[in-house]
Design goal:
- The chain has a single domain (12-200), classed as Uracil-DNA Glycosylase, subunit E (3-Layer(aba) Sandwich), CATH 3.40.470.
- The chain is globular.
- Strand 6 (157-159) and strand 7 (165-169) form a beta hairpin.
- It starts with 11 loop residues before the first helix and ends with a helix.
- It has helices spanning 12-19, 54-59, 66-77, 110-127, 137-144, 150-153, 172-177, 181-200, and strands at 45-49, 85-89, 96-99, 102-105, 131-135, 157-159, 165-169.
- The model has no long low-confidence stretch (mean pLDDT 94).
- The protein has 202 residues and is of the alpha/beta class.
- It contains eight helices and seven strands; from the N terminus they run H-E-H-H-E-E-E-H-E-H-H-E-E-H-H.
- Bound molecules: uracil.
- Uracil (URA) is lined by residues 49-53, 56, 62-63, 65, 67-68, 89, 173.
- Uracil is lined by residues 49-53, 56, 62-63, 65, 67-68, 89, 173.
Length: 202
């Protein structure tokens, strides 16, 4: 596929096809495929994660693994239909650090997020969501180019550009990593509350 030029593709489908051949950063070398965003062309809500994990890399779809399942459950509990939501990631290739047979996910760095942001920008141009949910620090950085403490912004609705709102929340994988059942329940409740707030702003 040709290197994307400055002209913006007219449809998400064209954009997705371009992204399939993306070599903007070295991550494509280790990944199985580009995992592009998915959802309706004019979804009012866009949700941005970090990057595909092992399962997403193999499936070619965002949020289909364990974090995705938790995401789906809480989205539903917040009254949001995933089929009407555009779901994407800050970085579109799995960052794989092979360890023996295991494929270990590593957090993307600022340079990788900046390289990949071109795609996220085009997704925003074409989907034109009313509300964008940033799940985790990588998504927040991709959308704002700032690295504030997630805890300071979490659960708040902020302006994103002139006619869009940004809701900051945690990444669902964070909930999976909490060792304590009590904290897990509390953090899950807050995550759901954040998604409900995003829904209220639609
Ligand atoms: N984590 C993410 O940030 N995105 C996915 O698509 C899956 C897991």
């Amino acid at each position: 596929a040709p290197e994307p030029g400055p002209e913006v593709p007219a449809t998400l489908d064209t954009l997705r096809k371009q992204a399939a051949g993306c070599t903007r950063c070295p991550l494509h070398c280790q990944a199985t495929q580009t995992v592009f965003g998915e959802g309706p062309e004019r979804a009012p809500l866009m949700v941005v994660g970090e990057q595909p994990g092992d399962r997403e890399d193999l499936a070619g779809r965002p949020f289909v693994g364990p974090a995705g399942q938790l995401f789906d459950e809480n989205l539903q509990a917040a009254g949001i239909e995933r089929a009407r939501t555009y779901v994407t990631n800050a970085v579109k290739h799995f960052k794989n650090e092979p360890r023996g047979k295991r494929r270990i996910h590593r957090t993307p760095n600022a340079g990788e997020i900046r390289q990949c942001r071109w795609w996220l920008g085009r997704e925003l141009d074409l989907v034109r969501p009313k509300v964008v949910v940033a799940m985790g620090a990588s998504a927040l950085f991709a959308l704002t180019d700032e690295k504030p403490r997630l805890a300071d912004l979490r659960g708040q609705v902020l302006p994103l550009g002139t006619d869009r709102h940004l809701l900051v929340t945690v990444h669902p994988a964070y909930l999976l990593r909490l060792p304590d059942a009590g904290r897990q329940a509390e953090e899950t409740r807050r995550f759901r509350q954040d998604l409900t707030l995003a829904h209220d702003w639609l």
